[in-house]
Amino acid sequence: MSVIKADRTGEIDQAAATAAVEQVEGEIRAFVRRDISVFRRTRTEGGDTVVDNANSIIDRVSGASVNEIERVIAELASVRDMLRSEGERVQREIAGYASLSQTAMTSMKIIADSLSNWKNQSTPNRG
Predict the structure, then answer these.
(1) Does some domain include residue 100?
(2) What pLDDT does 65 receive?
């Protein structure tokens, strides 16, 4: 029963996402159509105006994409820096644990040797 609910929820989420994408695509089409109609009207007026309007359209359409790419690049750089610092922190902790482990092994050896010596000294010689 929960599998069916999960499938339906996924279908609903997918339908909502599809609807949102279609809405955005529709808005982009309307935006481009408005700009093209302006472009067509001014094309008859003169060649320089056509080039200026074409550049304007390209700047507006590509501007949002460029800004988004720059934002993603900055976010990725931030994540890279965080991962580097976390990697360095983990390396320091591993080195600390290795040192602690080595100290513990040395201490255990000293204790074992001391106990062995103590045991040998406490047993009487039968000779």
Answers:
(1) no
(2) 83
